Amino acid sequence: MKLRTTSVVALVLLGAGLVPAPAPAAPAPASSASSASAASAASAAKVTTTDGCVASFPEPGTYTKVKICYTLFRPGTATSKKPVPMLLHSHGWGGSRTTDPTQLAAYLDAGYGVLSFDQRGFGESGGQAHIEDPSLEGRDVRTLVDLVSRLTWVMQDGRGDPRLGAVGGSYGGGYQFVGAFEELRIKGKPIFDALAPEITWNSLPGSLAPNDVVRTEWAAALSAAALPSNALPSSIYSALVEGVATGQWPDGTGPSGVDLDRELGRNGPAWHVSQGRRLDIPVLFGQGTTDGLFPLEQGLTNWRTALTPAARKRSIFVGYNGGHVLPSVLPQGVNVTSDPCSTTLAGGDFRRLSIRFFDEQLKGRRTGLGGYGRLHLATADSTCVTIATPGASRVKAIAGDVVSTTGVGVPLTYEIAPGPIKVAGTPYLTASVTAPGTDSRAFYGLAVGTSALDAHLVQNNVLPLREPVPVDGVSRRIALPSVAVDVPAGQKLFLLVTPISDTFAAMGSRVPGVITLTGTRVHLPVVP
């Protein structure tokens, strides 16, 4: 089955966009660049690098074990008498492991061993990528943990229990959760002692198709990035192509015959939480406030549901302007890359913050790091807002009806409140919905401007409302994207509603019509 829409074909070129985008770092001064490079080279010379592969679980329907290949970095200070903690590291979707020690010099210099590995279906590893299936990629991570537990120069907390952390973003954050949760399921404890996942997901179906409306650009990019190495199983590839081409999230009744909720529903923290499991270990979350694939609410949901209350008190959440970002043209968004919260907490970028976090959690070293038990979110103005909970706390009513054409038309804005007002967390709407058409869709978000004419979308995200059948005055709770925004005096906070969105290209209503919200109330996480 081939993609036949121009917008989707163009997205083949975006496959590399799924490789993790790290938290933005401030550029080094020109005068220090050469000395930093020399220092990295000198440090790398003290590192022992070993390449290898382990045999892991066979692909479904086969009997041959799949090789998972890795590069192991041993810092010069690590010996059996002075063992060091270990960090697992892996790549984003479509990528491969790190083999150059200079790229991991910050962790190695800080006294950590690092094992970087090719995930199943990528790099030199065999098999196909099942997008962090617990029974496949979960076993791969467990196999690597077993390898680390036999290294005499790695700190061990018990038999089969190395002192272990993990780093990586996007798909490289997904392995962290699947590995920790699978160890918890099998052994009763996560084995990992601390995690630092960036820009990753809580639920794959919830990320790729919120309310069953496909994020066209990203579903296409996911499948396109898998083409060069034939990484995806044909069933999942065909289903993603179907979703992009038809505008319907595959439920088993379409051309592919695949139910993606069934195929991908277990591949993330949401499923483990539904089974009653929560991680009782400290986690440093890094999530993109302008991320259009795994948006801020995916990380906030992990914070709220995937950890025990005790673990949250020992964890830190950082939202930065970055992640999986594409231009937000319609509706018009912002173009900003910054990480003010890592700077506030650690005096540097997210990697520096992660090292201080691991020093405290894996080495028991007091570094003076603060911010535990709190969420630290970047605004588009590159300020940092700290909150204790992302929940909505204040209600604002919108006068009159909120109306959107469907299928065609321009974005419309409705005033919520004048500035100054600061909002950080997860807002939502409550309203009575009337939609006379079949499969009506509209997209909602928050916007800021001096008036409706210059209002721009806050941090580039909208979320869809979908009504599969005609409705008349039905009460709904409508999700809005999680945000952090400081609206100054002289500007206003708006509700933005649009019939089309470039992130959800061609995913508007199947039949043109009108969606009307009456009695609309906006529930806002207002910061005092």
UniProtKB/TrEMBL annotation:
Q: Which InterPro entries match?
A: AB_hydrolase_fold (IPR029058), FrsA_esterase (IPR050261), Xaa-Pro-like_dom (IPR000383)
Q: Residue span of the signal peptide, if any? A: 1-25
Q: Which Pfam families match?
A: Peptidase_S15 (PF02129)
Domain Xaa-Pro dipeptidyl-peptidase-like, which positions?
Answer: 67-309
State one molecular function term (GO): hydrolase activity
Keywords annotated in UniProt: Hydrolase, Signal
The protein's matches in SUPFAM superfamilies, at most eight in alphabetical order, are given as: alpha/beta-Hydrolases (SSF53474)
* Top-level division of the source organism's lineage: Bacteria
Q: What does the similarity note say?
A: Belongs to the AB hydrolase superfamily.
Under what name is this protein listed? Alpha/beta fold hydrolase
Originating organism: Nocardioides plantarum
